[in-house]
Amino acid sequence: MHLQVAGRPATPLVIRLPLQLFWMGALWWVDVPKVAPRDDQMTRWLAIALVQVALAIPVRSAQPLPPLVHDLVIANGRVVDPESGLDDVRNIGIRSGRIVSISREHLDGRKVIDASRLVVVPGFIDLHSHAQTMETYRYQALDGVTTALELEVGTADVDKWYEERKSGEPINYGVGIGHIPVRIAVFHDPGAFFPIGDGAHRVAATAEIKEIARRIEAGLKRGAVAIGAGFPYTPAASRAELLEVFRIAGRRHVSIHVHIRGSVEGLDEALQLAAETKAPLHVVHINSAGTTATGQMLQMIADARRRGLDVTTEAYPYAAGMTEIQSANLDAYEDAPDERLALLEWPRTGERLNRETFQRYRQIGGPVVIHTNTDEMVAVAINSPLTMIASDAYWQDGTGHPRTTGTYARVLGRFVRDAGSLTLMDAIRKMTLMPAQRLEARVPSMRGKGRLRVGADADVVVFDAARVIDRSTYREPALPPLGIQCVIVDGVPVVADGQLVEGVAPGRAVRAAKNP
Fold first, then answer.
1. Are 289 and 260 in contact (CB under 8 A)?
2. DSSP class of 277
3. 370 vs 320: CA distance, rounded Å
4. With 473 labelled, which of 35, 111, 360, 378 sits at a CA distance of 20 to 30 A?
5. What is the pLDDT of residues 85-125, one digit of tens each?
6. pLDDT tens digit string along 333-370?
7. Residue 63 has what pLDDT?
8. What is the pTM of this model?
9. pLDDT in tens, 34-43
């Protein structure tokens, strides 16, 4: 694949306008009975003279329109679009950040990407990314992500969050209003990302629940994409408090993206809250929440959907998770036996933890790897038709999970090509169309993402299906994948020939309409 710069097309040939019909009509008008007033005869001879003059003047025709010159053309690629079902070789023309042509025919472009023997798909939409910095946007771009959204934890200050990114980012970005950070703010918790004091461990009084609800409502009015919640990180939140948050989601028809408490009971709790309030529910990382019960929990979601409940879910393709070691999510490890503590890994050294190192690192704080799942359960989640692909990208002070840089390439390489457990079309649907559709009711601009059609946003990924694979590990989480050749955001390449393009920041805010 390479980028070519094309010249302008030749000017179309100019031809004369045929006037035969006009001439014949004029002659017929002149050749009338000879008995006529003198003035009429003079008028007829004047008409003949005017016609003869007109025939002597060259006249430009109604010219055919010149060929459309596109800003960018992706030529000769295998175009896979999950909305239309198209899977064939096409040329794609882009102008002003939009797809304006999809054709078998040659397209002219000022720049041309030769995508011969490569696959062309919509840009990947990540509904669950905590990696919301310039550094991590660049990492995710190399994995084909064109839109990264922080919808589980979210933010307590929607305006400030968007303001911090307005100078430009390489990919599209967006945020939800989060129950976790709102609780941190209301309780003045010292935690930076997850609560570690009262925000996690104190039951809210009635007035505090009202204040939490008020702030969530305010965040939605400022254009938050969704509502986020993480029950294991706020274990003291009562059912009354959670019910109030779900009522807001139901009343406003806004999806609530929930990190449920582990296993079947946790999912049942969230489904009951959603059923009671008619809130659109999105269960994050079903593979991580379900572990050995993943199959059973997917069946619970399928059953709930058949009952008419609006519930969706997602998964990432790794058997280990990651979280902040100081978070309430790991309180249960305080009294855990040694064999359970050994499931925790300190990624900066690679050591498995014991009681002494767990307590020491918990005082320091930082990300910890949690080895609680199996590859078999991950495959159940990834292969299910219910799941979207979402990375749960996590990065802190140079340490992160390999899912930040490798989620999408890993699915394409290991599940589509190597295992054959997913078709290419199904995998692309999970990465593009399904996440876009989850958000369209709240954010209408998402109807222009996740598909390749005329009029859609020009967020596009070009990859080599024979080579695509993840390379990042828990020791080297920043290693970029192979085979993601070109990534285009709003019509601008941010990755070309597998390398980041420096000096471009075409990413736009994904945001709901603001209302007072």
1. yes
2. H
3. 5
4. 360
5. 999 999 999 999 999 999 999 999 999 999 999 999 999 99
6. 999 999 999 999 999 999 999 999 999 999 999 999 99
7. 57
8. 0.88
9. 334 444 554 4
SS3 at position 414? helix
- What is the Cα–Cα distance from 491 to 86, expressed in whole angstroms? 21
User: What DSSP string describes 286-336?
Assistant: HHHHHGGGHHHHHHHHHHHHHTT--EEEEE-S-S-EEEETTSGGGGGGGG-
**Partners of residue 172 on adjacent β-strands:** 147
Contact 106, 451 (CB under 8 A): no
Quote the CA–CA distance of 416 and 119 in Å, as a whole number. 13
Judged by DSSP in three states, 410 sits in: helix
Give the Cα separation of 437 and 444 in Å (integer). Answer: 10
CA-to-CA distance for 463 and 54, rounded, in angstroms? 60
Angstrom CA distances, 439 to 213, 280, 388, 512, stand at 22, 10, 13, 10
- HSE-CB for 382 with a 13 A CA cutoff: 28
Task: Output the average pLDDT for the chain.
Answer: 90
Per-residue pLDDT band at 262 (split at 50, 70, 90): confident
Question: Which runs of E-coded beta strand occur in 332-371?
Answer: 344-346, 351-352, 367-370
Sign of CA dihedral 489, 504, 90, 420: negative
